Amino acid sequence: MSSRRNTVFVANIAMSVSPGEVEAALSQAGEVASVQFTTTASGKHRGFGYIDFTTREAAVAATELEGLELGGKPIRIDLCEK
């Protein structure tokens, strides 16, 4: 992961949503460097993950997308501070 200063935590991700869909949705805030979902031992995502942006400004802008619906569920977005 890049510097945590450029990272947001995203929760309430519907099981039907792919990392590519999250990247596409959040790229309106700025350039996405990577998307990492937390997964179970069987490889299914657990409904949350971390999205790294190339700049701090993009990560901050992404928090304004809080409540955006993906897969029929509003996502929660929090800026990682450490």
From TrEMBL:
Identify the SMART domains for this entry.
Answer: RRM (SM00360)
Q: Is RNA-binding among the key words of this record?
A: yes
Q: Which Pfam families does the UniProt entry name for this protein?
A: RRM_1 (PF00076)
The entry's keywords: Repeat, RNA-binding
Xref: Gene3D superfamilies: 3.30.70.330
| GO MF annotation: an example | RNA binding
RRM domain span = 6-82
Q: What is this protein called?
A: RRM domain-containing protein
Organism field: Thecamonas trahens ATCC 50062
The taxonomic lineage of its organism, from the top, reads: Eukaryota, Apusozoa, Apusomonadida, Apusomonadidae, Thecamonas
